[in-house]
Amino acid sequence: MINVTVIWALIILFIIQPDIAHEGAVSGAQLFVHALLPYLLPYIILTQWLLKMPSNHLPSSQWSRYIKAYVLGSFGGFPVGAVTVSEMKKNGEISTTESSLLLAACHAPGPMFIIGFVGNELFGSVASGWKLLIAIHLANIMFFLVLLVFLRKQRVKTVPQPPVERDQKTSPLLGSIKDSSSVILLVATTVIFFSSLGNVLSHLVSSVFPIDMGISKTLLLAVFEMTSGVQSATEHFSGDAMYPMLIAAIISINGLSIHIQVMTLAKGAGISILPYIIGRAWNTVLVPLLFILIY
After folding, report:
1. Is 211 domain-assigned?
2. 54 within domain boundaries
3. How far, in Å, CA of 183 to CA of 179, rounded?
4. How far from 280 is each of 55, 95, 135, 187, 276, CA to CA, in Å?
């Protein structure tokens, strides 16, 4: 009943403030088209294509499979990690337990986004972008190693799932394009919706409470949609000394938009999301701290 009430409240809020909702949706759509789609789509297609290529044998070493998942999944931007891990589980390359651990570890923004957009355009320093990227990957790798220590027995006992039979008449490239289109649609939908929702709620909070619009908008967009949160932080806090740490914190939080993308893909592949949730809490705390030390 509470969920229904909240949904109706949001519907009414969107009707009352259509111009603000529209402004947020337009902003989200522009961010998706200009900042996400050009980087995300080619990489997802190539990753899916590589994973769908027929293979007569699986990598003998479990660490080679982990490295494959991390390299393919962690350097293409959100939610390529979830796409990669889900596909490897369907192929029978990793077990159910391994897939849940890798889902938590193979989750990072793309290097082009961090180094090119955040580092070069926002920080005005490519070196700062590299430092933030290193902090993110250090936190991910540390978390995965910790999980392996605590869950070693469960991982050893887990038997990989048999690979899913694929239609031999469909080429790997066509299959990758088809699957990638659904992922891109998921990303676009969540980015636009949560950008609009965050925009509406930030105006509501600022009108009800004596809170500066820049603060409320940045905080709410950081919770709902990462890229919009980064943009808002840049508009309102780019001249502050805390600005680099604020950007690092927003990126480590990821936002509901990205979390829902990952959870949707994980659910479709039957992967547990508990390690992912723990991993996001870990990164939210550790990434800004590591960035401070490196910065």
Report:
1. yes
2. no
3. 7
4. 33, 22, 14, 19, 6
- Domain-embedded: residue 18: no
Quote the tokens at residue 8: 């109706």
CA distances 19 to 14, 16, 23, 165, 221, Å, are 9, 9, 6, 49, 17
Whether 258 is covered by a domain: the verdict is yes
pLDDT, tens digit, for every residue of 118-152? Answer: 898 889 899 999 999 999 999 999 998 888 776 66
Quickly state the pLDDT bin for 159 (edges 50, 70, 90): very low
The range of the structural domain enclosing residue 132 comes to: 40-47+61-163+175-294
Q: How many domains does the chain have?
A: 1
Closest CA to 163 of 27, 243, 56: 56
